[in-house]
Amino acid sequence: MEDNTTSTTTVEVTLSTSSTLEKDEWSDKVNNHSVSRSDLNSVIMDYLVREGFKEAALSFQKETGIQSGLDDSLMESQIQIRSAIETGEVQKAVETLNDLDLVILDTNPDLFFHLQLQQLLEYIRQGNVDEALAYAQSELSARGEENSKFLEELESALALLAYDDPIKSPFAYLLQHSQRLKVVSELNSAILSNQGKEEVSRLSVLMKLVLWAQSNLEKKGANFPKLTSICSSTLTHPQ
Amino acid sequence: MASVEGGGEMEVTTNEAKRLSYLYPQVDEKETYLPRQWSSKDKYSYIGLSQNNLRVHYKGSGKNHKDAAAVRSNHPIPTGCGVYYYEVKVISKGKDGHIGIGMSASGVSLNKLPGWEKSSYGYHADDGCVFSSSGTGQQFGPTFTTGDVVGCGFNLVDRSIFFTKNGIKLGTAVSDVPANLQLYPTVGLQTPGEIVEGNFGEDQFAFNFEALLTEMKYKTRLQIQELPVAEGEGVWQANLHKLVLGYLVHHGYTSTAVALAADTGQQLEESQESMTNRQKIQSLMMCGRVSQAVSMVNRLHPGLFDSDQELLFRVLCHQFIETIAGYDTLPGRGAEEGRENGEVEDESMETESNDVVTPINLDKDPGAVEQLLLFGRELQSLYNQISKKSHQSGSHQLQTLLQDVFSLLAYADPHSSPVAYLLEPSQREPVTAALNSAILKNNKPPLEFALGQASQCLKLMTENGLGAAAFATIEELLKPTTPHNQTV
Fold first, then answer.
1. Where does the CTLH domain start and stop, copy by copy (chain A) (predicted)?
2. Do A176 and B234 touch (CB under 8 A)?
């Protein structure tokens, strides 16, 4: 696993045995750290419920005996909104959202803008240039003026139109599935915060804890094996 | 508290320890001590101590500032505190009330009030000035005298020092304490009759220090929560989906995994059947039916135990334990028979096992004891085989396990014996996890590996003088936050 990463992981002949030992010791300790299963399961349940994965949450309740505590009608709305965004039907998502809470978009200007921007991106994805431009002019340009951050995002989106094949442009990331997931996550946060619940999942905070601790150590100039990919458990060892 | 009975003092000490570990839960006093009293060694000769080294009085001639005398606490402030705080009550201002309260590093002259020398900081009673490693003070707060309580706090996150008077925070006095400088609570006196008394956290403070700690925790959590991710929020979310799926698959939560994979458009890398089987093995282990789990592993993963005898040893030790606890039975006593070839079906698993496992009764069944001993001998010979092969320190652990397991036999009531912990259901978790990992040939799901990394990094932060680690613990972030009423 370590061989195909960058050169920093290569163990050189000159490396003293003691630091090799230290390296193994660190990995061992990481591997031997244990967290109680029930605590972890409750973090997982929290994640499934808040992200609106109803089927999974109900199955997990059966498999672990942990109460999901899910609010059925809220979750149904979350599911509809998620699937609308993931299939590019932004307008449908906005309607469901308004049914749920009429003022949510008024009180979350960022969210509202990102939904509008997503609509624009869906027009661009469909290759519907006229519609995209008309929508940008009528709905989005005024919003770009009110906020320089919005303007920047709007410009990146419109820049896609400058390329014959937007997928090969530097802004192609805007057309990837992850862009839709980002909007879904923002929507879920707003919905949950409106319901008086934590905005961010405990799982996300726990995973960011790793990044936070590592960046603190790097700023301090400490030498340590860094987790460079959380998803593949890749540790990159210092030279 | 002068106690008549011997027990009284003990109690005080425990309460004290409780309060300190409540204030500083991340400080492990096996590794770093907390300041608890004034040091009887690290003090100037003009300083006298009394009342368990908490009270300080001046006993010099006190003619001028050359007669100043200071004392440090018995231990330095550990980084793991996050924020450290102590208070001093002025019992008497003596002749002139030249009293300095603050912090200093080890080795700094004690013939000076804190603050005058490099690496020392102090708030002075007579003029209300703060001295920060300098002979010249800066106007800071009110003066203080007999009856006043002055507090001094060291924030190890931003390395600042603040003071309080009679429970009110006066603000930050020093904001540039050098990194890695280790500080001790320090008081200095200068004229006859001056008496002060330290409170290192054993008694309630005048200042609401707990509220400050709560605020630090909240701020740190917010900082972590809002940390921008390099790959962007969208990719981050997708990665979280992956981590959750990886966790579900690893631990065999099959139907949840299938549902989530469908919802997030991810592929499952393992067949449902294989996941379900692992789930069954795990739940057998978790309810103590080790022998059934073992025969299922042997059937589905032949050779697994041959290639990992250490694991087999741990699993069999567990079977021994569960037999004594009455959840399992020994080889050849029924549980496995008639099952060897049969598939373990969902429904049959429950009913069958309830019928088959009869708790062993060591008193009334001498045959059972004999069989246990026989089984124990097998364990012993397995251990001998393993220890011959490996020269690692790991075999020492196995030996301890074997001894503990055997000693269960020595007690009439194992549940109230010194090794009763072995019978706790929570003991099933590690061995079950190890067995599952071996089947998967995969140590830990990435989610848990990341938590292990976080734990190591937090420890390293503390070792490197980064106090913020005290306010970002995995244990706390795992728990749901109590809803707070703050609205932005």
1. 80-131
2. yes
